[in-house]
Specification:
alpha/beta, four-stranded mixed beta sheet
Length: 383
């Protein structure tokens, strides 16, 4: 390995992983480091200053890969030697690096792997002064509005630090779902890439957290393991799944986890109720035995356009097979969930089909539900 290494991390590493896994190069054949769990090198071989960063032409190499986020985020073993600047941002990582948790994309440049990225996102600490100022202004504005309307109601107040904790946890969970799924987000103007291999699994994330040990962010990363779902095929499947299943206190509807795109063996019904051996519903809450449970199909115009228009007809056949076998099959479209009221109706329908009742929410939980909906739902799906 070269004498000086740059260890890309956090959102910057996330961008590179997306580009690599969505492209022809992939990540499967790239060298992984370290061979066994260990800390970052402390002998001065880590890029940890703006001068080192510029001298290594790291920004230029990232642009060649297609990554243009600025500042570039890197991890370093200690506070000493770091320098602030616009080009690079350095995070101290004094904990253990799990075995094979970084990917070498070119000589002198290693990128945090998917599991390590999720842990890093859970450990990130941002400046909160502006957040607190905005909260105070928002509370005053709501109080003034209520007074102008002649209402005696007090504004519903959500402590900004508590919501920020939830927001960051949800953001890390969304990344975990993406990396455990078969799609990759693009940049601001880039399309989503579908039908790619998962970068990690729930089990591999659990193992990585165990190797890091008790370190800043690992407790939140363990929480992500319990919130994330494997097998999502699109951003909207992730958003719907999290909206339906996240805890009530997070703003979700608190339903049980479905299986996403889980293959059901229906070969015994081939030639009678089915024309195939396997059906794969988007969401499946499996009951006791074949034909018992609830399936939810999401019909996305964007997904079908990107993966082939024939999929729309196949989805209809699949839904018919599931229904004929006894499953309760629900359908959702972008129009269904373009508003929070539409999303709430869908959640009520799923809950009814599952034989459960949605929990009655408090004003604070209602406020968080609106915030969560705005965080999860892509703008284009709501417009």
């Amino acid at each position: 390995m070269p004498d000086v290494q740059a260890f890309l991390s956090h959102e910057s590493a996330c961008d590179v992983l997306r580009l690599l896994s969505a492209g022809r190069r992939g990540v499967e054949g790239l060298v992984r480091w370290p061979e066994s769990a260990r800390p970052l090198p402390r002998d001065g071989s880590c890029v940890s200053s703006q001068r080192d960063f510029r001298g290594g032409r790291i920004e230029e190499r990232l642009v060649e890969l297609g990554a243009s986020r600025c500042p570039v985020e890197l991890i370093v073993p200690r506070q000493e030697g770091r320098s602030s600047g616009r080009a690079a941002r350095f995070h101290v990582w004094s904990g253990t690096l799990p075995a094979r948790s970084l990917v070498q994309v070119c000589p002198g440049l290693l990128v945090s792997g998917p599991e390590l990225v999720v842990i890093q996102l859970c450990s990130a600490q941002g400046k909160l002064d502006a957040l607190l100022d905005a909260h105070v202004s928002a509370v005053h504005a709501e109080a003034d509005l209520l007074a102008d309307l002649g209402l005696d109601d007090s504004p519903v107040i959500d402590h900004p630090l508590e919501w920020e904790r939830i927001r960051r946890l949800v953001a890390a969970t969304m990344v975990a779902c993406e990396f455990m799924g078969t799609y990759r987000l693009g940049g601001a103007a880039a399309p989503v890439t579908y039908r790619v291999r998962p970068l990690m699994s729930a089990d591999s994330l659990v193992c990585a957290i165990a190797e890091v040990g008790e370190f800043q962010g690992t407790r939140r990363a363990r929480r992500v393991c319990g919130l994330a779902l494997e097998g999502s095929a699109s951003p909207m499947e992730t958003s719907l799944a999290l909206m339906l299943t996240l805890p009530i206190d997070f703003g979700g509807f608190g339903l049980g986890h479905p299986q996403l795109n889980h293959a059901l063996d229906v070969s015994e019904f081939r030639g009678t109720l089915s024309d195939r051996d396997v059906v794969t519903p988007d969401f499946l809450w499996q009951g006791e035995g074949m034909g018992s449970g609830v399936a939810l199909e999401y019909d996305s115009d964007e997904f079908h356009a990107a993966t082939g228009g024939a999929r729309l007809g196949q989805d209809a056949v699949r839904a018919n097979i599931l229904a004929s076998l006894g499953y309760c099959v629900l359908r959702a479209t972008p129009e269904t969930v373009r508003t929070l009221s539409g999303m709430t109706l869908l959640a009520s329908q799923v809950a009814h089909a599952l034989g459960v009742e949605l929990v009655e929410t408090t004003p604070l939980q209602d406020l968080r539900r609106r915030k969560l909906y705005m965080q999860l739902m892509p703008v284009r799906e709501r417009s």
